[in-house]
Amino acid sequence: MRLELNGKEVELEAAPMARLLDVLRDVCGLLGTKEGCGDGACGACTVLVDGAAVCACLVPVAQVEGASVTTIEALPEGHPLPRAFVDEAGAQCGFCTPGMILTALSLGRRPSRARLQEALAGNLCRCTGYEAIYRAIGRAR
Amino acid sequence: MLKYVGRSVPRKEGTAKATGRAGFLDELRFEGALHARTFRSTIARGRLAGVRLALAGDGFTVVDWTDVPGRNRVSEQCEQPFLVEREIHHAAEPVLVLAHAERDALLAARVELDEEPGEPVLDAERAREAFKTVAIEKGDAAAALASAPVVVEGEYRTGHQEHAYLEPQGVVAVPDGDSLAIYGSLQCPFDVQRAVERLLGGAVRSVRVVATEIGGGFGGKEEYPALIAGHAALLAWKARRPVKLVYDRAEDMLATTKRHPAVVRHRTGLDRDGRLLAMEIDVLLDAGAYATLSPVVLTRACIHATGPYRCDAVRIRGRAARTNTPPNGAFRGFGATQTQFAIEVHLDRIAQAVGLDPVRLRERNALRSGDTTATGQRLGADTSALAVLRAAVRRSGYRRKRAAATDGRRGVGLALTWHGAGFTGNGERWLASRAALETTPDGVRILCASTEFGQGTRTMLAQIVAEALDVPFESVELAPADTSLSPDSGPTVASRTCMVVGRILQHAAEELRERLAGLSPGEYHRRHGTLSVTKEYEPPAGAAFDDERCRGDAYATFAFGCHVAEVELDRDTFEARPSRLTAVVEVGRAVHPVLARGQVEGGTAQGVGGALFEHVTMRGGRMTNARLGDYRVPRACDTPRIDVVLLESPFAGGPYGAKGLGELPIHGPAPALVNALRSLGLDLREVPVRPDAILEAACGSS
Which of residues 432-491 of B touch A (CB under 8 A)? Predict the structure, then answer.
């Protein structure tokens, strides 16, 4: 099957019902996408499919045929979001961070706190209490 | 003027984490590695009569207890086996482990356990066996109670809490000739090394343990990783191949440790002005099926049970009861969270009973410098209970909000807490932790086994060393937490890393600086080769603790915190929604203010979760909601605004005055929230508080 992965056309072979998460990690070698629960409850495996944040553990890879998939590896060196997550300690253990950053990326500019509370509700963070994540996203935009 | 300590310098481990490049356990790939799966008991108590395997195809490695070359005991102090022999003591107890190159083959494997069920003990209050009892006596509490003009009694309960670190438990065991390496998501490399050495006995020449990047711990990766590392080690040793064992979320929640449920009873004598005359406290912890860390959790729970208050007549009795659930274990707060929930809710009931404002009552009784604790420890000049209380009341607008909260919907409450950093009593003396510094061509390298799982360990220790050596922060690097490289700086637990390990490294840096005789570390290294300095923990001068009687200097010092909680009650659904938490903590010195604030915000959010959302449901000794979709960790939309104030009252025995910080902020939120609900007339004495309990309390009060 073909898809656009991090801006590049790729062709890959995978069982149609394989989880996008496993294909990204085991076939494409993109290890930045994390598995926290495997049932869509934690958001650690969040990637963007055609710009929308989805849990890669819930998506059969056949569903992204022809789509554009973005993972944390797509962000260029020095991108303001990861930098702000470091400076504001929006990443503590860092396991939720790639997914959190991708959800943040899917939001418009300058999201309000209320908008962030709603949009990030599917991305669990057990370390920060979210305040530092709001500060990081606020600073990056 | 300090150059690095007290400044939010760039975080050493930050960029890798934020770009997805940090190497967590499951990112490690080894040629020819096998996957592994654990088969577990399904009953809470009974006997294992037999095991039947139905394995399709070959290539399986099977390990049960008969494959153990050394001792089938996870720790020296406890009878918990790595793998069940005959007796089953809890559900989800590991019986057999299986490895295969293909995950699908493992999933298809069928293993039937022939279990003969016995009668489990599932109620700690009815348990006959105790792993540990504690008795603390100060003065004559019985006599003081008998003559006290006011006596208030109460019983308070707290439930299990699941760590829910985002990265599940996992290890890889890699055999190499007659040695074995373990890579794992774990807090305490040397503890795991000792456990695996005990398990493999003479069969192995050496065991090396390396902590990978760790996706959260909170105590959950303190003792359990020894068990899972043992399983992977046995499989790898038998298969002569690397073995990766990673739990899925359901297995992790079902099998691993949780916070101890507690029942705490108070009987308190006061004079008519609300001065504490006598405290009788009874602490019961549900330890689960094996002792594991329960004895030390119980001791800490009891020592903190009075809260940060002065009282001359105290009698505390503690009991860690044996039941047939998976063992409960270390969780941020380590027993002190449960007992401080009790005393803080009890104090608001006392305030009502004597007609005093809760703040006034606490001001009257808060510990001051020179006062003694229940164990007789005399407090130093850094004692700051009053300072945090007053700052929190001011900052949050507590009085104004309390006066305005008359609509029955918006409540406000507070809690004042303390936390002794480091191991209890003689624990640090016995650990005798060591840490080292060595020169490199570019500067200096820290060698210690303290792990980074979100706290910023590596950054904070590097700041202390850069400061003491007077070298650029960037020139300080850290060796990986690897037992083959580093001296044993003790486990990464008990809010001890900054105060204890940081202090050892400060001393090492001071000695190194002298020996460098004016040269920079890099310059010295280039001219004379490596220079290294190893230092060991030095107990505070004059400190003494009697473990038998639980008397004396229990901790080097205490940090203090005050939380003010504001809550909105939905009168239709009876849900309590936290709207704002104010946290004022005094931590000696905030070595890295941004990271310190992060610890307080995160601990506060976990405390809010434990108070309102996180409900472990058990049936027959087995967790029934072992999924993140069913066990409700606070989400962004549930978590209130958290306002943090850091106060500093330097402690002479800590590096640049720093005390422990990690655990303190989890104590206050639950009692502050319950006290906020009490301000609405709701008499609640148990967490987690669920809407049905609020409804019941509302019916009782109207």
Answer: 453-456
Under the banding of pLDDT at 50, 70 and 90, the label for residue B53 is very high
- Give this complex's ipTM: 0.98
CB contact under 8 A, B635 and A101: no
Look at chain A and count its residues. Answer: 141
How confident is the model at residue B624, as a pLDDT?
98
Question: CA-to-CA distance for B335 and B25, rounded, in angstroms?
Answer: 29
Is residue B63's pLDDT more than 80?
yes
- Which of B218, B270, B569, B276 lies closest to B412 in space, CA to CA? B569
Q: According to the model, what pLDDT value does residue B407 have?
A: 83
**Residue pair B88/B43 in contact by the 8 Å Cβ criterion:** yes
CB contact under 8 A, A120 and B636: yes
CB B115 within 8 A of CB B41: yes
Q: Of the candidates A32, A35, A129, which has its C-beta nearest B20's C-beta?
A: A32
What would the DSSP string read from start to end of B391-404?
HHHHHHTHHHHHHH
Owner of token pair 């049936």: B619
Give the Cα separation of A120 and A109 in Å (integer): 15
Judge: B641–A34 Cβ closer than 8 Å, yes or no: no
Report the gap between the CA of A66 and the closest CA in chain B (Å).
25
Question: B79-97: per-residue pLDDT in tens?
Answer: 999 999 999 999 999 999 9
Which residue shows structure tokens 């569903």? A63
Is B15 in Cβ contact with A93 (below 8 Å)? no
| DSSP secondary structure of A77-128 | TT-HHHHHHHHTT--SS-SSHHHHHHHHHTS-SS--HHHHHHHGGGS--SSS
pTM above 0.95, yes or no: yes
- Cβ <8 Å between A129 and B453: no
* B390, β-bridge pairs: none
Contact B629 A72 (CB under 8 A): no
Residues of B in contact with A82 (CB under 8 A): 15, 18-19
Residue numbers in B near A88 (CB within 8 A): 594
Mean pLDDT on B203-223: 97
Query: What is the C-alpha to C-alpha distance for residues B491 and B501, in angstroms, rounded to an integer?
Result: 10
* CB-nearest partner of B454 from A32, A42, A92: A92
DSSP B412: E
Listed in order, strand segments (DSSP E) in B338-491 are 410-420, 434-440, 443-447, 476-478
